[in-house]
Amino acid sequence: MDTLPLLHGPSMAKRPCCSDPSIAKTQSTMLPESDNDAVLKSFLAGKRSDRKRSSSHNAVVWPLPPDLMIKVFAMLDTQSVCYAAATCSFFQKCVADPLCFSNIDLITLVPKVNNAVVSSMIRRAGNALQSMKLGVLPPCTPPLFCSSEPLVYSIRNSTDASGASWNDKQ
């Protein structure tokens, strides 16, 4: 096979592999078992390199400056800020600012917030902490006036402008 020297050459470490999994799958079916690991490692290294290059590129060309993004994240609730931090490295850097955690709201429907979560939120907020809400919401019962039964009834027995029922038109 001519492709083995190309895959294991010294210049391969400098170039990321193609991020198309079908190419790696095709190559892995042609190679012996010992070479499959090398191809897989090379493929994964290429994907890591591509992610790193993309994240640095996105941070440079992001249309909004970091200080404006920090102000936007400061307006979000605590859970949304944590979700935003998990999406990309640029958001994670913006969310690291204590201003994003100045008003912490950890009120939940089920008791899932422990002392470790509370202490990490306080550490993230630092001196910018203005308020913190803790607790569990009581279980809510649906209001009586929001029943879906009248809506279902009115749809089933609705009539159009001619006066004929939709059920009669079938």
Compact description:
By secondary structure, the protein is mainly alpha-helical. It has helices spanning 3-7, 21-30, 33-61, 66-75, 78-85, 89-95, 115-125, 149-156, and strands at 103-108, 131-136. Helix 5 crosses helix 6.
What keyword list fits this structure?
170 residues, mainly alpha, 2 domains, two-stranded parallel ribbon, extended
User: What integer value in Å does the Rg equal?
Assistant: 28 Å
Largest sheet: 2 strands, parallel
Task: Note the total helix count.
Answer: 8
Tell me the β content.
Answer: 5-15%
Shape: extended
Order of helices and strands: HHHHHHEHEH
Mean pLDDT: 73
- Low-confidence regions: 1-16, 150-158
The rounded distance between the terminal residues' Cα atoms is 68 Å
Q: How many structural domains can be distinguished in the coordinates?
A: 2
Structure characterization notes:
By secondary structure, the protein is mainly alpha-helical. It has two domains: 3-61, no CATH class; 66-136, no CATH class. It is built from eight helices and two strands; from the N terminus they run H-H-H-H-H-H-E-H-E-H. It has a two-stranded parallel ribbon. Strand 1 (103-108), helix 7 (115-125) and strand 2 form a beta-alpha-beta unit. Helix 4 packs across helix 6 (89-95). The protein starts with a helix and ends in a 14-residue tail after the last helix.
Layout: helices, strands, pairs:
Blueprint lengths: L2 H5 L13 H10 L2 H29 L4 H10 L2 H8 L3 H7 L7 E6 L6 H11 L5 E6 L12 H8 L14
Parallel strand pairs: 1-2
